Amino acid sequence: MNKSRFSINLLLYCILIFSLANCKVPYNPPVKSANARYLVVEGHLNGNEQTIKLSRTRNITSGDTAKNIYETSAHLQIEDDNNGRFPLIESTNGVYSANYILNPGSKYRLHITTIDGKEYLSDFVPFKQSPAIDTINWNFKNGGVQIYANTHDPQNKTTFYRWDFQETWEFHSSFNSSLIWDKALSKVVPRTSQVYICWRTQNSTAIYLGSSAKLQQDVISEAPLNLIAFGDNRISVLYSILVTQYALDSAAYNYWNAMKGNTENVGSIFDPQPNQTRGNIHCTTDSSEVVVGYVGAGITQQKRIFISNDQMPANWNTRSDCVIDSVPKDSIVYYLGGTFGLIPIDTILDQTTRFVYTSSLIDCVDCTYYGTNVKPYFWP
Fold first, then answer.
1. Are 133 and 103 part of one and the same domain?
2. Strand partners, 53
3. Looking at the structure, do residues 73 and 157 belong to the same domain, yes or no?
4. Of 106, 122, 138, which marks where a domain is finished?
5. 257-290 pLDDT tens trace
């Protein structure tokens, strides 16, 4: 009797727990809409070349295309603490640049006047000269390639560092096409430019920092930069990374460290909570306006290395899912000239001794779909 009563109570308890688990009601908190068009200032006042990019933030909406909103037609000038003025000229939308030899003994700030008459000033910052980059090296980590920066300041004056980089890689199409569909002539003709070998370039998006503040010597050893996963096509032929090193003061380091926490180290309850990080740029016509960015000054250092696919494991290049189709000449208008999406590769005789066109999808044949076939000037 007691065993039967226990079994009934256990069954009722399980039913109750199951019922409570299925009574969960999703909670969708209301999202407050705001007209967030904050000015974003990106750039560094280098010793002999200065480039500043201006853009605006925007609200994320359904179907957002992530298109940049450039701040154009603004007036920019660099100012030093000796009343020197150095104007910047807009070269492309939102990009302002010039070439001045800045004095390492001065402090500098940026003065911005936007087209709507608002003025912005950055704080005066010291001119920090970065020591040379000792080496950029790499090793295998978790099957991929981890790239590192190494540097030191024998005078122990730098302490705080930041790096960004530009990576360029050569890649090849799965198939080498010698033919192209000419829409004007409505027929297949020989190619006049190759689409088998291409290059692609992109800039770093993460924030990379280093500090020797807790060390007896100003030495940075193997600061991790880019991590390239196993099989990534960036090292399918030849890969290059150009690293730029910045020397920071403590205020700049704290700003970038906070930005790193806001953008990269969030997502779990143990990560730092997001905060409204303020840079060193302020709107003088509206003190309550938020401005995003930090303007530093000083001489940067750069170093480039190459990594070849020959240095990778034999199974680094994963097998392509590209396939070749045969298109009879009486069907080329449909398959090559229509919306089917095939690109001609070559002409062959099939098993019935008919001439056919070998073909494949555009991303398997035309490397300019992902990059450019113009060889970079620095490429070996």
1. no
2. 42, 95
3. no
4. 122
5. 999 998 886 555 444 545 567 899 999 999 999 9
